[in-house]
Amino acid sequence: MSPSGVLHSHSIATMGADGIGPEVVDASVRVLQTLAQLDGSFHLDFHNFDWSSRTYKKTGSYIPQGGLDELRKHDAILFGAVGAPDVPDHISLWGLRLAICQPFQQYANVRPTKIFRGTKSPLRQANHGDLDWLIVRENSEGEYAGQGGRSHRGQPWETATEVAIFSRHAVDRIMRFAFQSARTRPRKLLTVVTKSNAQRNGMVLWDEVAAEVAKDFPDVKWDKMLVDAMTCRMVLNPKSLDTIVATNLHADILSDLAAALAGSIGIAPTSNLDPTRQFPSMFEPIHGSAFDITGKGVANPVATFWTAAEMLTWLGEERAAKKMMDAVEAVTERGITTPDLGGSAGTKEVTDAVCEELEKIYRQHSRK
Ligand code: ATP
């Protein structure tokens, strides 16, 4: 209950979509319902949207007419993954995920990474606490702006262009968001990833705007790193990094590397934020549909649990989000993990264990 005694209610749109998406979203809804019930201070109202590659194959579109207006009525969106073996990836990505992110101006894509207690990084010298990053990805333009075209189709001289767009407006707002995010973390340290040695237009504007915005954040220490050198630094010196800002494409690639260095892509969350809060923000695990393990009951739900905790924080339920993460980490510490983290538990066992931990945490809390 809030100090005024009013029960907060949040309306959540869920969209498992494809592959293991529905499995990990269903598991997260179970954990969130358990959490809300135990906590008693907020209520979550879930509304499922059955938009997926199945719908596309049946109707010719991922999002029905008027669908975005319906989706907009919710406070947040919990998304699974989109992609099917028989639908080209650019159709599924642009048909659903980007068709939500772009009109909803979810321009900041935020990807935290850390090594969970009880889990191991493939890096020999990195332990829990040695790798704790926040990657901020520009999510509205750059290399994924959709600008370009194809001509002379089928001819030997066929040509295609993929034009990266960098506008001062979008670079400025993501830099401000990144410096602000760095400021809220204890180390107040930001690395700006670039490729301005080879890409001398867009990336030079990117660097210039970073330097201008930095002047408004004198308390944040920052440095600049070429994207290729950044991959080496992430592997060889993970402790030297904290908050990282990069373009749409660079951050997309670096965050998969980050997830793997933390142990598995099965633990990494994403928030697609509209910081103006004009539109609902969308929360999803980093991983894709993972066809190879779909339906086998072994998908790691931790990425979506962490995603759901990030969603709660965004909705103002920080206390409950922290309890959810405490429960998840107590479970990894007990060694109850899916095969991608070296364990032998299934999605359901991990989910059951997180719900049990939550019950323990709230029992201890009520005794205090
Ligand atoms: P996308 O391009 O949509 O990001 P992808 O096809 O590149 O997706 P994923 O679907 O993320 O890749 O799968 C990459 C690998 O990681 C696969 O072997 C998959 O089984 C594994 N994987 C992904 N997510 C999970 C998860 N939650 N639990 C366990 N393994 C996972």
TrEMBL record:
SMART domains: Iso_dh. Its EC number is 1.1.1.83. Its cofactor is Mn(2+); Mg(2+). SUPFAM superfamilies: Isocitrate/Isopropylmalate dehydrogenase-like. Keywords: Magnesium, Manganese, Metal-binding, NAD, Oxidoreductase. Residues 11-354 form the Isopropylmalate dehydrogenase-like domain. The keyword Transferase does not apply. GO terms for molecular function: D-malate dehydrogenase (decarboxylating) (NAD+) activity; magnesium ion binding; NAD binding. The keyword Manganese applies. It is an enzyme of class 1 (oxidoreductase). It catalyses: (R)-malate + NAD(+) = pyruvate + CO2 + NADH. InterPro entries: ICDH/IPMDH, IsoCit/isopropylmalate_DH_CS, IsoPropMal-DH-like_dom, TTC_DH. Belongs to the isocitrate and isopropylmalate dehydrogenases family. PANTHER family: D-MALATE DEHYDROGENASE [DECARBOXYLATING]. This is D-malate dehydrogenase (decarboxylating). It comes from Pseudopithomyces chartarum.
